[in-house]
Amino acid sequence: MSKRYWLMKSEPAAYGWDRLARDGGTVWDGVRNHTAKLNLQAMKVGDQAFFYHSVTGKEIVGVVEITRAGMADPKDDTGIWAAVEIKPVRTLERPVTLAEIKADPALKDIELVRQSRLSVAEIRPKEWDRILSMAKA
DNA sequence: GCCAACGTTGGC
DNA sequence: GCCAACGTTGGC
Q1: Do the Cβ atoms of A81 and A72 come closer than 8 Å?
Q2: What does the pLDDT average to over A54-59?
Q3: How far is the CA of A113 from the C1' of C3 (A)?
Q4: How many domains does chain A have?
Q5: Interatomic CA distance for residues A4 and A17, integer angstroms
Q6: What CATH number did the domain enclosing A84 receive?
Q7: Chain C bases closer than 7 A to any CB of the protein
Q8: Calpha distance A137→A133 (Å, rounded)
Q9: Range of the domain at A96
Q10: Which of A90, A100, A91 has the alpha carbon at shortest distance from A58?
Q11: Which chain B positions come under 7 Å from a protein C-beta?
């Protein structure tokens, strides 16, 4: 199966990009939404994801890679919820803001905008490439 | 099983 | 601080 792309949201006040870069990787747990859980469970080792700062910033700041997939959420006693392990791959040369994404017709169907509350979303390969090219501009 | 009420998230 | 979107809960 070919590589898929994702987007993971975090409030910088709770766990930001700087923290992830300093930690060198982390277990992505605590997700309590079923759609997001399905996305976590669909992830494979080697898949990549954008790291998005919600609330403060509202921008994509970096790229992460899934280093461990199909985990149970270690903080969950019920066995319902899922987790993955991620590591930072690189910081974007320039963050891509939500405003820019919304303004771009090529990204009008992106899940980040269509379902703004979803904390773990899939990114289509075309959208992935588009956002990467915006980060270089 | 339906739906109104309520809680939470996150953008504005 | 407000509100829209969505999920969950509880009465019927």
Answers
A1: yes
A2: 94
A3: 17
A4: 1
A5: 21
A6: 3.10.590.10
A7: 5-8
A8: 7
A9: 5-134
A10: A100
A11: 8-12
